[in-house]
Amino acid sequence: MARVEVDYDVCEANALCEATAPDMFFVDDDDQLQVEDPTVTDENRSRVERAVASCPKSALRIADGA
Fold first, then answer.
1. Domain assignment of residue 1, yes or no
2. Which domain holds residue 48?
3. How many domains does the chain have?
């Protein structure tokens, strides 16, 4: 099963991913990116791919599990 992963060492919490997929990502009160549900499904894959592509720091990726 595919999952979205965040490299928190790189992430600046710009919230562009949140703007693209607000049901999956949000920036909390401490200005840290949180992933609501990291599971990538057929239904949300296109939104997640757009969110990954929108990250200016390339801190997001989709990891396909075995």
1. no
2. 20-66
3. 1
pTM value is: 0.89
| Residues above pLDDT 70, as percent of the chain | 98
At 36, list the tokens.
Answer: 């609501």
Residue 4 is given by DSSP the state E
Contact between 12 and 54 under an 8 Å Cβ cutoff? The reply is: no
Query: Is it the case that residue 66 has pLDDT exceeding 70?
Result: no
Within-domain flag for 46 = yes
In a domain, 5, yes or no: no
Helix H or strand E segment including 18: helix 16-20
Does residue 65 carry a pLDDT above 80?
no
